[in-house]
């Protein structure tokens, strides 16, 4: 029997895309709940709640139904 080491890495997400939109609009699409609800997720899925805190250590949460 061997002992498994504890996992200490924190979750991380990196996205890279080239978009033909002004940086302010892209930032708003990712950080403003009403804008997130319009585009995030698959078709025919309703976004019930969106929350985005863009500060270091902030939270990003989306509740969907469908």
Summary keywords:
66 residues, alpha+beta, two-stranded antiparallel sheet, 2 strands, 20% strand
Task: Tell me about this structure.
The protein is built from two helices and two strands. With 66 residues, it is α+β, with helices and mostly antiparallel strands. It has a domain at 23-65. Helix 1 (23-31) crosses helix 2. The longest helix is centred in the middle third of the chain and has 9 residues, at 23-31. It is extended, with a radius of gyration of 16 Å.
How does the major sheet shape up? 2 strands, antiparallel
The global form is extended
How confident is the prediction overall: mean pLDDT?
A: 89
Multimeric status of the protein: single chain
How many E strands? 2
Portion in beta strands: 15-25%
Compose a concise summary of this entry.
The protein is an alpha+beta fold and 66 residues long. The chain is built from 2 helices and 2 strands, in the order H-H-E-E.
What is the topological layout?
Blueprint: H1 23-31, H2 33-39, E1 46-52, E2 60-65
Antiparallel strand pairs: 1-2
Helix pairs in contact: 1-2
């Amino acid at each position: 029997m061997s002992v498994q080491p504890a996992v200490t890495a924190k979750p991380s997400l990196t996205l890279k895309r080239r978009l033909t939109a002004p940086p302010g609009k892209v930032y708003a699409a990712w950080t403003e709940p009403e804008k997130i609800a319009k585009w995030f997720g698959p078709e025919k899925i309703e976004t019930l709640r969106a929350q985005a805190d863009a500060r270091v250590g902030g939270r990003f949460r989306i509740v969907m139904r469908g």
